Amino acid sequence: MSLTSNNINQNELRKLAAREGYTFFGLTVPYLVMVTALIAIPVGWLFYLSFIGRDGTFSFENYERMWKSKAYIKIFITTFKISILTTIICAAIGYPLAYFMSQLSRKWANICMIGVLIPFWTSLLVRTYAWLVLLQKKGLLNNIAIDMGLISEPIKFVHNTTGTLIGMVHIMLPFLILPLYANMRAIDKDCMKAASSLGATPSRAFWTVFLPLSLPGLLAGLLIVFVLCLGFYVTPAILGGGKVIMAAMKISSNIELYFSWGAASALGVVLLVVTAIILFIASKLVSIDQLGSR
Amino acid sequence: MANSFLNRNVSETQIRLKDRIWLYAISFIVLFLLIVPSLVVIPMSFSASQYLEFPPKEWSLRWYENYFFSWKVENGFNDWMSATWTSFKVAILTIVVATPIGTMAAYGLVNGSSRLSKILFPIFISPMMVPIILVAIGLFYFFVQFKLVGSVLGLVLGHSLVAMPLVLIIVFSALKNYDMNQEKVARSLGATRFRAFREITLPQIKFSIVSASLIAFLTSFDEIIISLFVAGGDNSTITRSMFLALRDQIDPTIAAISTILIIVSSGLLILVQLLGNKDKST
Amino acid sequence: MLGHSGPYFTISRVTMENSSLNISIKNVTKKYDEFYALKDISLDITSGEFMTLLGPSGSGKTTLLMVLAGFTNPDYGSVKFGDEEVILKPPHLRGIGMVFQNYALFPHMTVEQNVGYPQKLRGVSKSETSKTVEEALETVKLEGLGHRRVDELSGGQRQRVALARAIVFKPKILLMDEPLSALDKKLREEMQIELRQLHDTLNMTTVYVTHDQKEALTMSDRITVINGGELMQLGTPNEIYEHPENGFIADFIGESTLIPVKVKKSKALIGKTEIKVAQPLSKDGDFLLVVRPEKVFLAPPKKKKDENYFEGDLLDSIFQGESQLLVIKLTSTEGEEQVLRVRIPNQSVTDKALPAIGEKVTIALKVADSYVVS
What is the mean pLDDT of residues B182-202? Predict the structure, then answer.
């Protein structure tokens, strides 16, 4: 069947279709403006600043300094060390809890979920402060231990790596549990039943069927936690007591104390690039559409 | 008695409770450690001593007095009350800014071309993905040029930026679960696009929008890092004041403030949970 | 037909407007990248007609309906309601009533509010609205249920509310997108008749989309068969059934066996046997003989001139309640095995016994019913 080349109303119809497209796009414009004005431009500007040396001219000295300075290297190592440790600990204690919750009935799972969500929505500061108070020299933990005769002198739980780790794990745990739990809930229960009917012991069924199926959620959680740890400021600042210096704290001190925007921006850019790489990997593993089906 | 309880089946694959007791134990411990530390602050805030004992040897409301009457203090010490007021103002304004913008964007994404949506969605999520410290110093630098540092407007802009992705996700999810055909029907019956949205769609997603607003409020109220850099002078937020106090020395008043914050967030969270389930889906 | 008694609708209550509108569709084309959803469709629907758009899923029938409604804009083409070009008009100005497949009732409103919504949009007074809403509900036999909420209704009731909502403002054109597909068989067949009656009573032009050919044959004044975005055939149910214009339509509508036929020099041959065909054979080539199960019968002992005969072995004999289905393997065709189905109505227990499985049988088809398509 050949097509006539009348094309009646073609131009008008094309305009109509375009107008509809513009309307929907137009609704997203205010949001785009906000993001452009408040993220794209400032961060872009910081990117530019990172290439401005102390004398005001274009140079790589900010980046070079990070390579060469021992202090910076230490900061990178500390940041990575704490991030990796936090992530691993979260996975170790978060996975069993998520698994436990995924096997409960809806009602009980929701009740447990409240236990996960309340700390999630409690202010970061409040939680960090709580740990500070619990772990300090005259804090609850030390007092109980001394009262029970376990130790004679208070142990230094805080203002060091230990305290920082404890605090960060507490903050980050919900970030791991939420995507992992969602994934586990969605695993077809019939798969486990099938494995069982085919002769697998519960333990075997878990390792060969359930665990692999839960990996996407686990990976998503791990990446989110890791990325958040890299850029974390508040908790290490308070619980680390100035001894544990992470990248975000250095950025902040560069500005507050030294006004060296070049140095701060450069460090910030490095942080951003590392974050972007990790998130890119994450996006390949977890489709963004999953966010839409809560 | 205990034996039959332990021998109970807890899974369709015939796993017995006693085989899994270790799992139950770990889970309870972890849940305990998640909830309890924050809650410990509550009784401690009533401790009379400077060192915040648990359990308190003497009970007192002095830290609460410190907080509520801090506006009376003249010696330049922490004016907690005005900081709280600032936080509250900014949080309300954040709702006003973030909710409409986020809702419109969600609607545009759901109904617009899917090709565009795939490109736009990551851009919209970016405030959650870019390290917040970078956003904070970027905004600080930016606002210095426009003399917005220490202003309520600056804070509202910064907080809205962080709250909008959450609003977007909540409303987007609600719209995805909603039957858009109803708007089509309304239009076939004579309603304009806008009228169909207002009279048919909006009433059915209103609970999600309210939840999103509450989340926006909470996000703004609890926000620390951007506030650290952008707030200042006359306009400090309660979070900023708390952080600075914590860094310098441990002011036990913070325990009282923390208790109040815990109650406020828990209350809002319960509201959100109740409302979030109320939107009907046919 | 189904044993109902009495009139379905009280005609006197419904005010009739004497003019419904005719629909004129010209050269409507819609392309999605390289895929043609609609290819140059031109179609005229007469005023007051019940027109069904029939086709398999993905054929474009729903797309065409959406173009009529204004929800899908074609790449080019013209749609006129009466004398007015509406292709550029937004849906809410086209004055149509529409029923969707999943009804799309407003769950946050009662039945009354749902049905009254179009009146509210038109600024009709409250008293007039409740009057027309009541009329509409009576028309669909849901009087008294106005205060109910949507989730309290059964599937069949919801369907009627959707209908009432679409007709309450007396639209001149009614569009329906597979409105009965969610109902069970018995209810569906009842509703088919009721919908047709409603159409007759309210004197609207109705465009009805379905993939169920039986439904189309039952309800329509005319049927448009659409496949692959193209208009295959337009005609009355009788025309489409008895004289399908190509193999696809013959296969899609009703049951049929298509037997390959070679035409050479005005002679039609199945294998080596010549058969006589109902229409004049102008061209040579490969054709298909359309054999409908109800049109063939067991050959009587005396051969007649106005019948074609086929020899075969009885493969299977299946009891189907009101009829017996015989499955016969033809021996008169060359090449591929050809299986023919014959439906014999079980009219009376006194009828002659049917052949047994394995027996040789002769099947007859009247020449007048021997119809070939390309």
Answer: 92
Query: Residue ranges of chain C with pLDDT lower than 70?
Result: 1-19, 332-335, 349-350
What mean pLDDT is predicted for residues B91-112?
94
**Lateral strand order in the sheet of C230-235:** C96-99, C173-177, C205-210, C50-54, C222-227, C230-235
Q: Which helix (H) or strand (E) holds B22?
A: helix B21-44
**Where do the structural domains in chain C lie, given as residue ranges?**
11-95+171-242, 255-373
Domains of chain B: 78-276 (1.10.3720.10)
Q: What percent of chain A has pLDDT over 70?
A: 95
Nearest CA among B273, B14, B34 for reference residue A97: B34
Query: pLDDT tens digit string along A141-197?
Result: 887 788 887 777 777 888 888 889 999 999 999 999 998 999 998 888 888 888 888
Characterize the bridge pairing of strands C222-227 and C230-235. Answer: antiparallel
pLDDT at C12: 35
Minimal Cβ distance to A7: which of C76, C87, C88: C76
> Which one of C26, C39, C75 has the shortest CB-CB distance to A13?
C75
Q: Of the candidates C324, C191, C332, C227, which has an alpha carbon nearest to the alpha carbon of residue C271?
A: C332
User: Could you tell me the residue ranges of all domains in chain A?
Assistant: 82-244
Give chains near A: 3+ CB pairs under 8 A. B, C
Task: State the first-to-last Cα distance of chain B, in angstroms, to the nearest integer.
Answer: 46
CATH architecture of A82-244: Orthogonal Bundle (1.10)
- CA-based nearest distance B195→chain C, Å: 9
Cβ C192 vs Cβ C213: under 8 Å: no
ipTM > 0.95 for the complex: no
Q: Which residues of B touch A115 (CB under 8 A)?
A: 31, 34-35
What letters, b where the CB count within 10 A reaches 16 and e where it falls short, cover A107-119? eeeeebbebbbbb
Residue B159: which of B240, B82, B104 has the closest Cα?
B240
- Domain range C255-373, its CATH number among 2.60.120.200, 3.40.47.10, 3.40.50.150, 2.40.50.140: 2.40.50.140
Residues with Cβ within 8 Å of A50's Cβ and at least 6 positions away in sequence, in order, are A62, A63, A262, A265, A266, A268, A269
pTM, full prediction: 0.82
CATH superfamily assigned to domain C11-95+171-242: P-loop containing nucleotide triphosphate hydrolases (3.40.50.300)
Tens of pLDDT, residue by residue over A65-123, are: 888 888 888 898 999 999 999 999 999 999 999 999 998 888 888 888 888 988 888 88
